[in-house]
Design a protein that fits this description.
Rossmann fold, 6-stranded parallel beta sheet, 14 helices, elongated, binds adenosine-5'-diphosphate, binds magnesium ion, ADP binding, ATP-binding
Length: 408
Amino acid sequence: MAIKSLDDLLAEGVSGRGVLVRSDLNVPLDDDRNITDPGRITASVPTLRALCDAGAKVIVTAHLGRPKGTPDPELSLAPVAAALGEQLGRHVQLAGDIVGSDALARAEGLTDGDVLLLENVRFDPRETSKDDAERQALARQLADLVSGPDGSPGAFVSDGFGVVHRKQASVYDVATLLPRYAGRLVEAEVKVLQQLTSSSERPYAVVLGGSKVSDKLAVIENLATKADSILIGGGMCFTFLASQGVSVGKSLLEEGMIETCRKLLDTYADVIHLPVDIVVADKFAAEATPETVRADEIPDDKMGLDIGPGTVERFTNLLSNAKTVFWNGPMGVFEFPAFAAGTKGVAEAIIAATGKGAFSVVGGGDSAAAVRQLGLPSDGFSHISTGGGASLEYLEGKKLPGIAVLEE
Ligand code: ADP
Ligand code: MG
């Protein structure tokens, strides 16, 4: 069934109407609570700007980090409200609570085109509760914030692509209570993923890295039948290497996944490509001394923190004629300059393929951050997704609750 878009909502007319928007404003902060990468705020602006310009009373709900279901000043959305206001070019009020007295009073005081950001929705344990009734109760209170004085319903715009794979009150339940629409970001992201799954031109190369093998194994299983090559680097390559009997020293290893990796390698031997060399160090630290070794010669007292130059060369060759590329997960600990070359090299190979006409998608918060932090041109890729988990689950073939609910 079709999903209504923001344009459908704008066509209905939103002037003076309360509109609740679920955005993904979960940006990384440093120790002084400065935003280190505003990418997700920037990506949320088009939907919010369109609604303000059309005169809606905009109420934004979002989360930041992983609070434990209780207010945590460290994870207040205050820095986000300021940055969002700057990008929107208008004042963004921050409520001191989510659906409490401050939010209610502020919601009531909104005039056309105003923006109110509710405090971190994960301060309320009902947001992520497994109990449907608890989540529904919070969703009901959120929905009430945008109802008109005559009790007429407001509208809900789902624009937090990074959370649409979560069955949470502000993502899923609230959409069951209000007229619902996909925001610009969600619409754009879904369109790209549909293109990746339905009409991928070949050769199709998938590059996977990052730190958690278990999260990504299901994708490999699903993509191995569709992709021509799957290039594996990052922290996840060591479990694959270990499954071939290679000793990986102190590298990241998920013992429980070794058997699964072995089976994947047996079944898809000509699709899956592992590193041939690794940059190792004796500790996980920026100042650690890098040393390149063969992938099957990782010393027992060292840990692998990046793929080596030989691997970058192999991966670059494999990517050179690709027509479709999906990349999720950095190839190494790119946050430390001494271990960033693998990620940079592979990213450059993807950019080169894109320049030759390939359709390339980067998915994953850290991968997108790597593109920006390593000074790579973000327009060198066809699309940079804001949602790692959500895009992976989509590619796995799973139904995303936050998308499915918009269809109903
Ligand atoms: P994404 O957010 O793009 O999906 P992940 O969250 O899975 O990616 O993983 C990102 C993290 O993986 C980065 O912080 C990076 O430092 C880390 N990483 C990459 N390679 C290694 C490695 N060899 N050892 C430990 N951590 C690694
Ligand atoms: Mg991540």
